[in-house]
Every structure is written in structure tokens, then in C-alpha cells.
Amino acid sequence: MDLLEFQVKEWFRMIGIPVLPSQRIDHPTDLKRLKIRYPIVLKSQVHGDRRTKAGGVRFVETTIDAIAAAHNIFNLPILGELPDVLLAEAKFEVHKEFYLAVVLDTALCRPVLLGCNEPDVDWEHSENKMQHVVVDQDFSPFYARRLALKMGLRGKIMQSVSAILEKMYRLFTEKDLELVEINPLAVSSSSQVMALNGNVRVNDRAIARHPEIVTMAAKMTKRSYSRQANVNFNTWNGLYLTGNVGIVGNGVGSLMTTLDSVSNAGGKPGTCLNLRHSSSIDTSKVTFSERLETALHMMANDKKTHVILINFLGSIPASGGVSHAIEKFIQNFESQIKPPMTRLNGNKGLSSRNLPHLVVRLAGSEYKTDRKYLTELETPRNLALTVVENLDEAVERTVRLTSSVSL
């Protein structure tokens, strides 16, 4: 999960990394009550890069100009994303700029300190410019000073950069982060240092350990899905496509294989969820079966989903868990859409919510009991429940069902 700049700056301020006076702007009229002296810079709060080139960063010197600029930025999509918030920030006279980062190297399984004497560097094409120090033991100020020295810094500026690196590393460990980045770290002619822009990436699997991050993630997810769909899938691991085949798997590999197979067979994949892990913002302890039942209900409430294809490999859930979760889902959903039939103006008053057809592929001897139970399970007449062990057969049945629904 990537934070927006105004959230990053708040974390920087709390941990002691120098940032400019700033103010959150939720509406252009908020600029009438601005507490920062002009001139200021207005920044679009989106996750996309290159917002400056796209026009998402504007320098203004009066309230009238600021309100006009804010109207434009609020209505300016950057890589398809419109900002909900702008950041108004004081202007800073820059003499020199640096790049600093603390990143988790997944190959080394260790944090790495990065530094460069130029901002906006490309990691893949800056091997000669980027300096790095691997934190291979308990962290100490030595690592920060070593990176500053490798960057060629001396004297007061070396001490300032080292102190900021120490605070970045502290934030990195305290919040379970994958990346803390300052780009750029600016230095004035009087040697004052300032983090002009920052980026923070939270480890998704660690979100539940931090209640304040859970709250932030929930708000960000709610805003995101309010624009995209009527169904909230939270931050479940998956893909959110526009087709009519919902796909549920118990691993990234099986999920992507199923998606490709459906596409190659002429089907149109829709929401694809990986149930191996629970939602990263869900702090309650839920079983695999409970996650399955919740996922099925969410997909069934998504009107574009006509068929749900379940593809499970191995022995992730306990024996019997899958079949009971599916049975409970069918019973609960059927009871919700089974009001007495009436006629309104001569038309049938049936509920517009139809239970999607289910195709269940369970591979492995561990699912023998589940397969037998589901095969014998009584289902509503308007529901097709198909249970198979072969993926190709499951995909073929799925595509056939979507075709019949379309007719």
C-alpha cells in the first residue's frame, strides 16, 4: 500500500524529518483560510508519477490564483486518477538536491540504504550514480554515515543527511515498511535540509499489526471502490476486471492459470480473488471457509458476475470446509432472494438478484469428501452447480454457462 504525499509528510513530521509548512486542501474554497504565506505550491495527491509534467503541481502567489489552480488540479486526471485532496505547501529555495531511500531488498532479505547526488534517478539505469549500504547487522548510525561518505558528503551536510537517514530507518522498522523514499531532499544556500517530496510503501501483510494504518487503508479502499464499483472487495489479493466470470483460487499461481485458461477459451474474467490470505486490513481472525463464503457473497452481489469458477489445489482448508462454505452460501443467498412472487402492472415482480452459477474444481485426494458432498447437494432449480477435478473441463463448463446466461 502506497501512501499519498500528505500522509507521508505527516509521518515525516512526527519522526523529526524536516518538512515544509503545509495544509491539506479538500476543496478550493479551503484556500481562503490558508495559514501559509504566499508564494505556495499546490500539489495533486495521487499515486501516479510525473504529476509535475502532467500539470498536477502549480506555483501560485495569490489567493485568487490559488483557487483557480486548485479547480484545475482537482479536475485533472493523472494516469486515470483524480485527486480527492491537494497539498498546499510553502515554497523553498533550492541550492542542491539529493535522493535518499531505505528499501527492503527481497533477494538479500535485508534493508538497504540508497543515496544519490541527483534527484529523480532511475534505479535500473543509475548503477554508477546510486550508492548503497546493506544493513547486515543491528542498525547503528555507522550505516547512515557510511552512505553519506560514499555519496561524497562532508562536514555539516554529511551530518544532516546522516541524521535524516537514521530517522528514515527508524520509520522503516517501526511501521513495517517496504520503502521509505525522499525525492528530493533539498538543501538551501544556508545548508538547511528539507524533504520536499516523499514516498512510503507499507508491507500489505503487516497492515493488521498497526491500527492507525488499518484505518488509513480502509479509508483509501473505500474511496477507490466508490469510484469503481458497487461492491467493496477491500484489499483482498486479486484482480478486478470487467468480465462476467468470477474466479476464486487459493494461490496466485492457480488464480492466474485459471484466468488465462478462461480467456483462452473465449470467456471474460471478472473479479479474481486469491483466498490464501485474509484481507490485509481485516484484523479479525477468520478461517479459510469464512473467507470463501464472504468472497462468494461479494461476487454474487456484483451484478456483472454470471458464473463463479472456484479452483482449489492442495489442502489449504480443512476437510469438509469448502463444501460446507458453499452450501451455507447457497442457503443464505437463496433465503434472501425468495420473497413471495407478486405482479406489478401485469409484470412479474421477481427479485432482480439471481444466484450466479457455480463451477467448482477441486484437485487432489484431500478434496474427495468435498467433491462427493457437493455432487449430492440439492440446489435451487435456477442454479447450476458443477463439480469437477479437471481444470480444462471446469473452464469449458464455465464458458458454456456464461454463453447460456447471455442468451
From TrEMBL:
Keywords: ATP-binding, Ligase, Nucleotide-binding
One GO-annotated biological process of the protein: succinyl-CoA metabolic process
A Pfam short name: ATP-grasp_2
ATP-grasp domain location: 9-211
Cellular component aspect of the GO annotation: cytosol; succinate-CoA ligase complex
PROSITE patterns for the chain: ATP_GRASP
Entry's Gene Ontology molecular function annotations: ATP binding; metal ion binding; succinate-CoA ligase (ADP-forming) activity
Stated name of the protein: ATPase
